[in-house]
Structures are given as C-alpha cells and as structure tokens.
C-alpha cells in the first residue's frame, strides 16, 4: 500500500523531473547525445537513454535533498529493473557496433554529480 498523499507524490515527481533535467544537461556537457527520456517498458523505466563515443548508455537518475542520502539511493533490485528495461529498449536505440552499459547519476543540491559508469553487472 502506498501511504504517500497525492500532494507528496506530485512533489516527488516534480523533484524527479528536475533531477532528470539536470542529469541531461550534465551529460550533454560531457559530450553525450540524449536520445530519449523517461522511456517506459513492461519491465521498468529508463530515465535517460544517451550515446557517447560508440556506447549506448541507459541511465538511472537519483535525486536526493541531501548528498548524504545518495549512498542509499540505489540498490541491486532497482539496477536489475533498469537493465531488464534496457534489454527491451536496445533494439530501438543501439546502433550496430555500439557497446551498451547501464550508468547511474546521483544528484543533490550543492554536491558534485556522481557518475557511476557501467554500474550494473549480471549476478
């Protein structure tokens, strides 16, 4: 059961969208091409699909109000969900010869962006 009120859910959604917009801007500054945002599949959602130097990257973005909370923002279950969604999306976004990876971007106010490249490995 979800105990969050509709107002809290809407506020969380707005924060998430802001975090994703900041993540897209940061990725573009690093030379990434943004291919898609908030792509939903039956297996889960990918926040950002991007490409950089022959690599198609499926990015999970986590935004927290405090930098200290970023260490607990992602877990194996969430990463697996992103990886499964990436599997379904790969035919639509991956160019022939591209490598594929799942990255995480962790963002908080007044903290540098934490980019964890190739964050997911099958167990």
From TrEMBL:
InterPro entries reported in the protein's UniProt record: Restrct_endonuc-II-like (IPR011335), tRNA_endonuc-like_dom_sf (IPR011856), UPF0102_YraN-like (IPR003509)
GO MF assignments: nucleic acid binding
Pfam families xref list: UPF0102
Record family assignment: Belongs to the UPF0102 family.
Name of this chain's protein: UPF0102 protein EOE18_05170
Organism: Novosphingobium umbonatum
């Amino acid at each position: 059961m979800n105990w969050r009120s509709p107002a809290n859910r809407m506020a969380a959604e707005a924060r998430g969208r802001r975090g994703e917009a900041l993540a897209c801007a940061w990725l573009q500054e690093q030379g990434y091409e943004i291919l898609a945002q908030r792509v939903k599949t039956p297996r889960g959602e990918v926040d950002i699909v991007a490409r950089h130097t022959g690599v198609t990257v499926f990015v999970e973005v986590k935004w927290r109000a405090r930098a200290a909370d970023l260490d607990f923002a992602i877990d194996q279950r969430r990463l697996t969900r992103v990886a499964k969604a990436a599997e379904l999306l790969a035919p639509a976004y991956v160019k022939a010869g591209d490598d594929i990876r799942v990255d995480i971007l962790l963002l908080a106010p007044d903290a540098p962006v934490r980019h964890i490249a190739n964050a997911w490995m099958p167990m």
